[in-house]
Amino acid sequence: MRSVWDVARWTLRDQRGGVIGLSLTMFGLACTMTLLYPSYSDSLAQIELPPALEGFLGAAGSLASPEGFITAEVFSWLPVVIAVFAVVWGTGTIAGDEADGALDLMLAQPVRRAGILVGKALGLGMGVTIITLALYPGLMLGAVIVDVDIGAGALLAAVVSQLPLVVLYLAVGMLAAAALRTRRAAAVVTTSALVAAYALQLVGGAVPELDVLSRITPLHWADASVEMVDGAQPLRWLAVAGVAVVVLACAVVLFERREIGSGQPRRAARHRRSRINRRA
């Protein structure tokens, strides 16, 4: 590996199995949820949701509308699932590789530390982008089969709006991995931040008086229902993407200052302890 792009290609190739599997899963789930809409649209139209529950649907308002149904059944949780995988991959970039001894080999290559981290971010970023974009053909296929009245452009804008969100949590995972000594600690901190943001988004949507809480979370600015109802909102995308860039820059600074420990001695010590325990 001699450049940032070499690191990015190596990282993406290393995760190709997960990327392909998750992309197919997202495609299948998005298509299935869209196919279910006509079966429930009539019954959902007869249900009056309390104002608090309507807040969960964002700009869509009604669960009986195609926008509301897709928001509830697709965009309310599938992007969060992708963000969780982004966190797992992000926390493994430094703390995980350090524990495995792989980071020592990377640092021995003629690439600066900043280049290694940026390259891994690019590779993983391309991976989560492919996974997220797989939602679009699934939604479109389902919409064409059952003739759902929603535009292709609206669905594309909704899917694209999720890209900055998953990239942001990838960057947060990398920041936690650069700041903390173990991957487990980094994963716990980052996952807790994601869960807290999700909870604040739900509470803010359900209780109008607490709407300000949801506005401080990235999930609010990646609300797919806004894209489907009001059209593409590139300024919202840029706001979340800008935060992701700042978080990644902080991760680079911390990684440059981090003291790297070798993973080999720790594995050897664990191996010696297991041998002693077996003899005992």
Would you spell out the secondary-structure blueprint of this structure?
Layout: H1 4-14, H2 16-45, H3 51-54, H4 66-75, H5 78-100, H6 102-107, H7 113-133, H8 135-146, H9 152-160, H10 163-179, H11 183-206, H12 211-215, H13 218-221, H14 224-230, H15 234-257, H16 263-279
Helix pairs in contact: 1-7, 2-4, 2-7, 2-8, 4-14, 5-7, 5-10, 5-11, 5-16, 7-10, 7-15, 8-9, 9-14, 10-11, 10-15
3D structure, described in words:
The chain has 280 residues and is mostly helical. It contains 16 helices and no strands. α7 (113-133) packs antiparallel against α15 (234-257) and α8 (135-146) packs antiparallel against α9. The protein is elongated.
Q: Could you spell the SSE succession in H and E letters? A: HHHHHHHHHHHHHHHH
Write down the overall geometry: elongated
The parts where pLDDT drops under 50 for at least 5 residues are: 264-280
**Strand tally:** 0
Q: Helical element count?
A: 16
N- and C-termini, Cα separation: 45 Å
Mean pLDDT: 86
Strand content: under 5%
Radius of gyration: 21 Å
Major sheet attributes: none
Name the helicity range: over 70%
The helix-and-strand class reads mainly alpha
List keywords for this structure.
80% helix; 280 residues; disordered C terminus; mainly alpha; 16 helices
Task: Give me a quick take on this structure.
This protein has 280 residues and is mainly α.
